[in-house]
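User: My collaborator sent over this chain with a note saying "see what the structure looks like." That's all I know about it. Can you take a look?
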Amino acid sequence: MSLFRIFLRVFALMATLTLAQAQAPSPRAALVIGNADYAFGTLRNPANDAEAMAKALDEAGFDVTVTTDANQAAMEKAVHAFGAKLKAKGGVGLS
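Assistant: Without extra context I'll predict from the sequence alone. Here is the result:
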């Protein structure tokens, strides 16, 4: 095999790998919070709505974190953990 043909095959392989990497989707993560208990009253469906949204996002390829009926401290903890995950992995975040 000639040196030119080897060069062409290596070049084609590198071009294919570069295109495949460029077309790979960014990691996607989502944080879904559904709370029902508020000072003004209780809502009926937030947990179910959060689970339904989480399922839809999971099916769309998101790495989903769900928090339901969390107090303020638990929500802040979930948001900070979500931010740390995005910072570490990069990609797209939805909250």
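A starting point for your reply to your collaborator: The longest helix spans residues 3-23.
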